[in-house]
Amino acid sequence: MRQANYNWKLSESEPSETFLQIVQQCNLSPFIGKLLWQRGYQKEEELQKFLNPKKQELHDPYLMHDMDKAITRIQHAVINGEKILVYGDYDADGITSTTVMKETLELLGANVETFLPNRFIHGYGPNKTVYQEKIEAGSQLIITVDNGVAGNEAVAYAQKVGVDVIITDHHELPDLLPEAYAIVHPRHPKGNYPFPDLAGVGVAFKVATALLEEPPAEFLDLVAIGTIADLVSMTGENRTLVALGLETIKHSERIGLQALFTESGLTLQEVDEMMIGFSIAPRLNAIGRMGDPNPAVEMLATFDETKAISHAKQLTLINEERKSVVEKITQEALTMIDETNAIHLLADPSWHEGVLGIVAGKIMNQTGKPTIILAIKEDGTAKGSGRSVDALNLYEMLDTMRDLFTFFGGHHAAIGLTMPKENIDALQTRMNRYVLEKKIDLTKGASLFIDEVLTPKEVTVDLIEELKLLAPYGTDNAVPIFLFRQLFAENVKKIGANQQHLKLTLVEASHFLDAVAFGFGDQENEWLNNPVDIVGKLSINEWNGRKKPQLMVSDFVVDGFQIFDWRSKRYRTMTTIDQRTLYLAFDKRSIKEISGMDEDHIVVFEDMTQIERLINTHDYQSLLIVDSPDDLAILKEILKIGTFDRMYLLGISYEEAYLNGAGSREQYAKLFKLIHSHEKIDIRYKLEAISQYLKIPQKLLIFMIQVFFELKFVTIEDGVLQKVANPKSHPLMDSERYQQRIKKIKVEEFLLLSDISSIKKRLTT
């Protein structure tokens, strides 16, 4: 049995007949209609707006709080030649927001300077020291983009010394807002803006629209990138902005963007939200995660092709460094996990502070548990990020432990915190206690919403092309997830530089569907010989001009008992011990073939009473069989007694019974003749020489001598073999050892050579 990583939730909402008639009138298929219905678009007007986003549907920027006040102040600054500072943020949203505001002000002829804080030097949001320096250098108006509502101290300082601050932001509003000249925010309680979920760049675009008296189409490329990167809701006005922005990118004359696409191996004409989300946004985010983000604004705003190319290459190198750092920290953190903890809390002084949120997310996805990753700094503080599953509101839990932190903020699924390193152990203890006392079930993992059940037969290139009608995808408009039930996998093979992914073919009757499972490379055996339920996203794989449907696997489930083929020698090195696995050997000598594991962890079979006692006193889920029993019935009985989900078959054979056999009549005759030509043979020292002389494998030779000893053809004392004169004649089958050998050969032949399906059938029926 293989359980799902996620908590699957299948949509059961069915569209009404009236709605299906509307769908038909719109020339849409019932399939797309059902997906739209499930996403809440259930009226004709809603459908039309969703499917055909238009610039005319953008909201009036003056509905936003303080917009008129902000515009009047900016116009005054432009007319009077005041030096304006645009103070941004270090992520992709902040970078694009800054560029939009900078270029808007430049179009008006303003004297403008931009500044993006370095997260390691200045931290997030308004920094009083920077404000002070910039004001002393001549800044007369400060406009924040994608930050500001949490900058009370810095804003208060600026206003006190006579420099107005206009905040444009979209982040959660604190109880106490800064006393800025103006606060432009879509969620401001005193505003009337109809769409609350704009990204920072969306708010900047609204200011630009008001200043320029129309939506500036030339900035829609940046708006799309920042909105996609910030993972805000891909509905309503954001959907319109992104859809229009993606079209703008296809014809963009922005030199920096062209250079970044070229450096990313992408073409502007083929752009979609996935390319932005997986290639462009990470490069923009990486520069702020790793250091100074200001070159990114220079790249996006420059008219110098050489500079643009240079900056684009720099961003790519930094992103590669970021990926390497993330992978290194992730692997280190995984080795530190204590499974007895309800929540992973992992800290290290060598970890890079800028990527800890990514690492926390990766570990949470791999383990299914909420995760907090901290970097311990030289001053004794620990700073980091946390990510959580649906079942645990991370912010709510940590809010009860604020006494441990010097800084804390976030929401249900993600938090940031700073604390003295001395408090780390106390935090772990209190989190474990919280989960226990609140009876929070963390076993289900994050929710995965499934749109529809399909079969391989139903999946066509045309169907996948039709799904593009729902794009652009993002938060609140996710790429559709489909469930395929009880399929078999064929041609399963590892791919990727580190063999961390799988490529396979899913089969149902005579219908096939290619699939790729990213990050599942270590679960190759899970797919074999068992029907699986799979969930994933559909895509088109194009090769040499030929298009084929392909499933990108998100998760899968295997019901029932599984047997894993570990008969390859590469499985004989074990570095970790699973306390819920019974490691069982039938011959103690076989254990020597395994490296990396203490022999004490492996049980040597004595009798069924011993096994029954072990199973009754341990919560075993898995059974690892080191070698072969003398009789297959023993293994069948063990499987009946235990409630194992899976069995791993190593297939070690110390005696190599099947390989060497039980000895032929000719071999026994040769050995008998040799023994009777000597009075005594010291087999402690002569065994290898006899083996070579008779051309009989040494392990088989030992067995044959044991048979002769049992049949009283020889005596053995202190390692010295002596013939018995005129022994009584016996057929070999009179030897119990010989009979056991014949039986063992058959067992080994079956367990070592049969396919897993045959082994499973024989052992479970």
Automatic annotation (TrEMBL):
Statement: the UniProt record of this protein carries the keyword Lipoprotein: no
GO annotation (BP), single: DNA recombination
Occurrences of domain RecJ OB (ranges): 450-555
Annotated ranges, domain Single-stranded-DNA-specific exonuclease RecJ C-terminal: 562-761
Pfam families in alphabetical order: DHH, DHHA1, RecJ_OB, ssDNA-exonuc_C
Presence of the UniProt keyword Hydrolase in the record: yes
Domain DDH stretches: 83-227
Keywords in alphabetical order: Exonuclease, Hydrolase, Nuclease
Any one GO MF annotation of this record: 5'-3' exonuclease activity
Limits of the DHHA1 domain: 345-435
Family statement drawn from the similarity comment of this UniProt entry: Belongs to the RecJ family.
NCBIfam families: recJ (TIGR00644)
Protein name: Single-stranded-DNA-specific exonuclease RecJ
